[in-house]
Each structure stands twice: as structure tokens, then as C-alpha cells.
Amino acid sequence: MSKPSRRRVPHRNPRAEPSHKEINGKLKLFKEQLANDAVLLADAEKFERDRQLLGLDTTEEVWELLNAMSVEIQPEHYCPPHVRKTSYELEGAPMYDFAWHSAHRAEAMYVKFAVADGQSYLVSCHPDNPRT
Amino acid sequence: MKCLRCKKELTAGRYTFSGEYRGEAVDFEMDGLGCQSCGFRTVKASQSAEYGRAKSDAYRAKHHLLTSGEIRAARAARGVSQEVFAPQLGVSLATLKRAEGSHAQDRKTDDMMRRKLDPARMEREVFDSFWQLTLDGSAVELLSLESVVDQSLYDAFSNQPIVPVVLSTTVTLGEASTGSAAPWTFEAVAAGQYVATRNADKTERAADTQLALAA
Questions:
Q1: Is residue B5 part of a domain?
Q2: Which residues of B touch A37 (CB under 8 A)?
Q3: Could you tell me if B169 and B200 lie in one domain?
Q4: Domain span at residue A110?
Q5: Average pLDDT score over chain B
Q6: Using H for helix, E for strand and C for coil, what is the string for B86-106?
Q7: Domain-embedded: residue A44
Q8: Which residues of A touch B43 (CB under 8 A)?
Q9: What total of structural domains would you count in chain B?
Q10: CA-angle at B72, arms to B68 and B77, nearest 5°
């Protein structure tokens, strides 16, 4: 009797929803890098708009928000976009969107980051827009 | 830390960044991370406020406005908090915080801050304004700089034409449009002799006022 052929695992669809394990892992990495001041901006110029929107004028204010994010965001705050996209800043690197009510900001917040090669890049961070 | 484009290692250093501020392209230098391979530049998330400040400072330098560093340095030299310094500059606390941050102040606010930071400039402007008035015809004979009691001011303006004074009345720089009292009073104490009295409390407003002579 021949051995049954090993089932081939298809390549993961990059537009497929990430698993809980993936979300947990990427968020953990992001939060660790936030705490270690190792998160980079995917596009510093584009992030300026978010920073101004948040009214963050000083490095201390930025730090306070980053610290709050590293504590407040939880895996259940993951909010997948309608169509999963890959980051245009990071070739092939998926982005992760989270929306939560920030106690620090006292408002609903939204953050999007991408992870490429073990490095987190903050793509955007601003008050959350009402979802339709 | 890896480059997001080519995945090569990023190097920390001082790099030139290109950005846009109020519709103008500005180049500025700051500490960041750069890729020697593809030329990608970025900063840490925690440096975002610094990035904005460096960019606005480049814009301010280009337009001859006080930079955030100059304003902070002026405050540090006085050893005061923002709450104390704001009224000294004649601006609100929020305006000062923005100016020390990444918001370039407008020209009018910048002029006001410069005057407050440089009393000599303010006095010079008061005198410039006065001389415009005195040299416009009718008021040309009202004041001689020699009669100004403040010797340092006299020295500063001694290159201006001296106009003989023959008047026996008190001449006051008129009231400001805001209703504040005139900061300078010129009084004839004798023929050809004037005493300029400076009302210290009101001097700050002088350069902002539309000066007018009133007998």
C-alpha cells in the first residue's frame, strides 16, 4: 500500500486575513519596538499631517502617545480593512490596522503599522474616523 | 534596523531631508537613519516632533523669522517658564508653545516678538517713526535730538539731522489706536531745550502704535 501523498500547503494569499497568531506576534513586536524606541516612520513627511492633527508639538508629547500605545493596544483591537492591502511603502510587507479607545487621548484612535524583516514602521496614527 | 526599500542595514547619522512647509519645498538637516545603498531616509517615531521642528525652522530661516531654537534660547537666557515668557513677548501661551514647536509664526507675530526681545530695536523704531513725522513738514521743528535726556539714545541717533527747536509747549506722541497712552512725552523746558520722558509701562506698545503728534 502506497503511502498517501503529503498534502501540499498552498502559498498563503497575501490578501488573506492574518491569523490570530500573526496578529498577536506582529503587535507584540510593534509594542516591544515602541517601548525600545525602535519604531521607524514609514514616511516622515506623510506622518507630519497625523502629528499635527494630534497636536503633538513636543518630543515629550510624542513619547507620551507612543508609551500609551504600547500599553493600550490589544490584539482584539485589530480592525481589518475591507480589502486587505499591502503597504505601498514596504514592498510586499503587510500592514496592520488597529482601532481602540485611548484612555490617554480620551478619544477613539487608529494606528497602522507595517512590519518588514522584523522592523516595525509606523504608517499612520490619528483619531479614528467613524466607520460606515 | 533595516531599510524598508532594500532591506539593507540603516546607518544612524546626520542627513539632509527634503520636505514641504506651507507649500514650499525646504531642505533641512537632522539626525536620522539613512540607507547607504538606496538613499532612503527616515527617523524614529519618537523624533517626529523634532522632524517637524527642523522643517519649520528651515522655513523660518528662509523667511528671516525667529527659529524655534532662537525663541527657546531667548527664554532660557531669561530663565523663565513659557507661562512667564509669553506675556513678556506679547503673545499667548499657546502661540509661544507653537512657536517653540513646529509652527512658524506669522510675520506680524515675529515682528512683535523681535521688538520685545530687543528693546533697542523698539526704541529705534519709535524714533524712526517720530522722525518720519517730524520731517514731513509741519512738525519738522518740534524736536532736537540733543535735547533727549537719554544719552544712549542720543548716541544711537546722533547721525540724524539735528533740527533747531523753538517751541514752548508740551508735545506728546499721540494715543494709540488701541487706546493706550502715549509712551513718550516731549516737554519744552526752555527755549531749544526738551526733555523726553519715557513712560516705561507703556513703552512696549510704542512700536505697535500709529504715532501721531498732538499738542
A1: no
A2: 44-46
A3: yes
A4: 39-127
A5: 67
A6: HHHHCCCHHHHHHHHCCCCCC
A7: yes
A8: 40-41, 44
A9: 3
A10: 150
The pTM is what? 0.67
Q: Are residues B124 and B173 in the same domain?
A: yes
CB A57 to CB B44 under 8 A? no
* Same domain flag for B39 and B85: no
Same domain, B137 and B178: yes
Check: CB of residue A106 under 8 Å from CB of residue A28.
no
Q: Of the residues B92, B117, B142, which one is the last residue of a structural domain?
A: B117
User: Which of A118-122, B83-87, B180-184, B205-209 shows the lowest mean pLDDT across its residues?
Assistant: B205-209
Tell which residue, B174, B5, B38, has the closest CA to residue A89: B5
pLDDT in tens, A67-111: 899 899 999 999 877 565 655 445 567 888 899 999 999 999 999
Domain limits for position B197 = 119-214
**Within this chain, do residues B113 and B167 fall inside the same structural domain, yes or no?**
no
Q: What is the ipTM of this complex?
A: 0.81
First to last CA, chain A: 57
Mutation target to probe the A interface, by most A beta carbons within 10 A, among B46, B53, B96, B102 is: B46
Grid cell for residue A95: 500592514
Q: Which residues, in sequence order, are CB contacts of B65 under 8 Å at separation 6+? A: B59, B104, B105, B107, B110
Domain count, chain A: 1
Contact criterion met (CB < 8 Å) for B44 and A40: yes
- Distance from C-alpha of B85 to C-alpha of A82, rounded to nearest angstrom: 50
- Is the CB of B7 less than 8 angstroms away from the CB of A59? no
Whether A21 is covered by a domain: the verdict is no
Under an 8 A CB cutoff, do B49 and A56 touch? yes
**Residue A111 is part of a domain; what is its CATH number?**
3.30.2310
Residue A107 lies in a domain: yes
